């Protein structure tokens, strides 16, 4: 399995601060493990440091140390404890618990090899989906259907079956592009690729089944309880980690090109996983190449205006889309709301205007309480959002820097509450006085 922290082929690992594995400001956050165990602020700092440090500098106990409730399933207490001997090293520990936040998290998955290592037969697909039983259909798009399935080893999967009447050269290219991209990547916050089928007109992709719907559905309260602001911050950080991995730590940098709420799937414990790589594009690796010239693809409301104007795609195009997603998380609104008044139809522009007027709290999702704590968090989130939505790519932060800032916001937000109040069921309940805005 590839190491998520190793330099990409053809890249000088020391070239440029945005490709470095640990910034000076993060290394300053280091503290002794004994002090961190007593001080919750230092716990958060240690977790932040582990997130962006090289594997050589990480301890198995660092990752997610500030939040046991959101520790990945494969980092159980028994596997995260490491060796009891004083001579334990990262090299021995990683066999037990994976290889860090920006690498694959499936080292212990039973009966699964490298991501996308299986080329399925039609008989296997039909058995897994009970011959594409309509009761197992879990999604539908312009290009095909998605079914829930179960492999022979018990693994639950999502089976994406393309429509046969859209098999032109364009759709075939997107199918191959998604397979090639998925085979290159593996991360806890990306849907796992299991395999594919291309045979006699059938084009099928098999990926990890994520059981709790997508983020847009949760913002629309289609799954019952609305998400509280702490959970929305956690989701934003999960997405930022996933996209940072794509931009910096995969074998070849990848631009997703379609970051949006309906492509963010949620697990039962509300961890986010980025899905749908049909529009993904490999980013340039040559030092003197700044962009990829390509036709515009993506979703209206999330598209980078500079990319729309110049046809020049960069990693900062994902950053712009992420800025739109942050507004969506705060406001609960969709990026484009055609039924609203003219000056509110483009949600990001409306929210940033309110923010610059000092009225950010007026954009808060009515399902969230307009408390002082939420107000401060929204102000900080919008400070980052305004930078992500800058009209030119050079004015936007990297995804990694965005993740760092969100970590800091979440840390400060949590310090305002007892830990149990953030996980209390009451914090997920609808505000009884909430009205649609």
Automatic annotation (TrEMBL):
List, for all copies, the residue spans of the domain called Protein kinase.
Answer: 132-417
Q: Where is the composition biased (Low complexity)?
A: 14-38
- Enumerate the UniProt keywords alphabetically: ATP-binding, Kinase, Nucleotide-binding, Serine/threonine-protein kinase, Transferase
**Region annotation Disordered: where it falls in the sequence:** 1-39, 53-93
Query: Which of the seven top EC classes does this enzyme belong to?
Result: transferase
Binding positions (ATP)? 164
Taxonomic superkingdom: Eukaryota
The record's annotation in InterPro entries points to: Kinase-like_dom_sf, Prot_kinase_dom, Protein_kinase_ATP_BS, Ser/Thr_kinase_AS
> Per the UniProt record, which EC number(s) apply here?
2.7.11.1
**Gene Ontology annotations of biological process type:** pollen development
Q: Which CDD domains match?
A: STKc_IRAK
The protein's matches in PROSITE patterns, at most eight in alphabetical order, are given as:
PROTEIN_KINASE_ATP (PS00107), PROTEIN_KINASE_DOM (PS50011), PROTEIN_KINASE_ST (PS00108)
Reaction(s) the record says it catalyses = L-seryl-[protein] + ATP = O-phospho-L-seryl-[protein] + ADP + H(+); L-threonyl-[protein] + ATP = O-phospho-L-threonyl-[protein] + ADP + H(+)
**Its family?**
Belongs to the protein kinase superfamily.
What is the name of this protein? non-specific serine/threonine protein kinase
Q: Which organism is it from?
A: Ananas comosus (Pineapple)
Lineage, broadest ranks: Eukaryota, Viridiplantae, Streptophyta, Embryophyta, Tracheophyta
């Amino acid at each position: 399995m590839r190491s998520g922290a190793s330099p990409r082929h053809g890249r000088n690992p020391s070239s440029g601060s945005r490709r470095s594995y640990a910034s000076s400001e993060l290394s300053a956050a280091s503290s002794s493990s004994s002090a961190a165990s007593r001080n919750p602020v230092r716990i958060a700092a240690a977790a932040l440091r582990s997130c962006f440090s090289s594997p050589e500098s990480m301890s198995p106990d660092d990752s997610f140390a500030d939040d046991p409730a959101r520790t990945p399933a494969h980092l159980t207490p028994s596997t995260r404890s490491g060796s009891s001997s004083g001579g334990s090293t990262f090299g021995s520990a990683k066999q037990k618990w994976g290889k860090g936040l920006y690498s694959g998290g499936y080292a212990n998955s039973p009966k699964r090899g490298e991501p996308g290592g299986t080329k399925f037969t039609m008989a296997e697909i039909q058995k897994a989906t009970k011959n594409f039983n309509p009761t197992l259909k879990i999604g539908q798009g312009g290009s095909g259907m998605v079914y829930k399935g179960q492999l022979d080893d018990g693994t639950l999967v999502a089976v994406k079956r393309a429509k046969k009447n859209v098999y032109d050269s364009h759709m075939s290219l997107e199918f191959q592009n998604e397979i090639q991209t998925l085979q290159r990547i593996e991360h806890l916050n990306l849907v796992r690729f299991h395999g594919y089928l291309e045979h006699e007109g059938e084009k099928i992709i098999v990926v990890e089944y994520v059981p709790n719907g997508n983020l847009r559905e949760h913002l629309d309260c289609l799954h019952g309880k609305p998400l509280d602001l702490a959970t929305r911050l956690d989701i934003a950080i999960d997405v930022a980690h996933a996209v940072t991995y794509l931009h910096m730590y995969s074998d070849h940098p990848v631009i997703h090109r379609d970051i949006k709420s309906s492509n963010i799937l949620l697990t039962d414990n509300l961890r986010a996983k980025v899905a749908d790589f049909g529009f993904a594009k490999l980013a340039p690796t040559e030092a003197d190449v700044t962009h990829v010239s390509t036709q515009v693809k993506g979703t209206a409301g999330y598209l980078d205006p500079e990319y729309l104007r110049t046809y020049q795609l960069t990693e900062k195009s994902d950053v712009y889309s992420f800025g739109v997603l942050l507004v969506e998380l705060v406001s609960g609104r969709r990026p484009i709301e055609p039924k609203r008044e003219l000056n509110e139809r483009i949600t990001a522009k409306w929210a940033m205007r309110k923010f610059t007027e000092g009225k950010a709290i007026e954009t808060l999702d009515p399902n969230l309480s307009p408390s002082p704590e939420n107000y401060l968090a929204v102000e900080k989130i919008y400070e980052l959002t305004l930078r992500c939505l800058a009209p030119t790519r050079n004015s936007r932060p990297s995804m990694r820097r965005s993740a760092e800032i969100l970590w800091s916001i979440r840390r400060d937000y949590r310090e305002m509450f007892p830990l149990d109040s953030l996980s209390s069921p009451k914090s997920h309940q609808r505000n009884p006085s909430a009205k649609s805005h």
